[in-house]
Amino acid sequence: MQNEQHIFGIRAVIEAIQAGKEIDKVFIQKEAQGDLMQELLKTLKKNNINFSYVPVEKLNKLSKFNNHQGAVAAIAPIKFVTIEQLVESVLEVKENPLFIILDQLSDARNFGAIVRTAECVGADGIIIPKTGSAPVNADAVKTSAGALFNIPVCKVDHVKDAVFYLQGSGITTIAATEKTEQSLYELDLQKGIAIIMGSEDKGVNPSVLKIVDEKAKLPMYGKISSLNVSVACGAFLYEAVRQRLGKS
Question: Domain RNA 2-O ribose methyltransferase substrate binding, which positions (predicted)?
Fold first, then answer.
């Protein structure tokens, strides 16, 4: 069965996945058993769909107490694109794309706020990992002020794969991190770039930092040594805008 944002019932979730429905995440009751549940788990893993185990109370709330059978799927409000579709379509019309990669960002409101700023500055796409990222749900749409409907979002298996693909396409990858001496304002942001923002608590993954083209940080002069990730992303994006003003 289905409501506006969720599909509930094991068989209904399996059929939705097989039919190509855009599923953002599946919630499964802790310690769930049975052959049908095993079939669902195999289907999720085969299609690389993000899922997590939750208490039955959460499933009851999501399904509005309908018979969920231990499984509820969150429907994505948008259709995702592949990284090939995203990069190739942008490069056909633009020499200096501006992409954003969000590495394990977990808060839907931070995600929505970043998307809103990205859309305002004319960014060309958002890239997120299929697992471990913030849910692309109604809260994200609301926080983005509807911007999620106006900017392409791409899901990839691994952030490192996206970095390598972008580099192979002539895009310079730049990680926002405190683990560097280089300031954002020392970089050339007029060329094609992808800005990588990390998770709220850990930042950009160390394995990703090893392969990016550039690392940059924002100057900090106060007693608090870190910014909210959406605020930091906004600073990076508007520095790119500043540098690109007047560039044909």
Answer: 6-81
What sign results for the dihedral spanned by CA atoms 194, 85, 229, 180?
Answer: negative
Cα→Cα distances 191→69, 104, 243, 247, Å: 51, 26, 10, 10
Spatial separation of the C-alpha atoms in residues 78 and 199, rounded to whole Å? 22
Other Cβ atoms within 10 Å of 93 Cβ, number: 8
Which CATH number is 83-244 given? Answer: 3.40.1280.10
Q: How far apart are CA 175 and CA 171, in angstroms?
A: 13
CB atoms within 10 A of CB 243: 15
Distance CA 202, CA 205 (A): 7
Sign of torsion, CA 142 143 148 149? positive
Q: What is the pTM of this model?
A: 0.88
Closest CA to 86 of 162, 198, 149: 162
For 87-102, what is each residue's pLDDT tens digit? 999 999 999 999 999 9
Query: Could you tell me the residue ranges of all domains in the chain?
Result: 6-75, 83-244
CA 62 to chain centre: 22
Q: Which tens digits make up the pLDDT trace of 35-61? A: 999 999 999 999 888 898 999 999 998
CATH of domain 6-75: 3.30.1330.30
Residue identified by tokens 């299609």 is 47
Distance CA(169)–CA(63), nearest Å, equals: 43
Tokens representing 99 are 């992409």
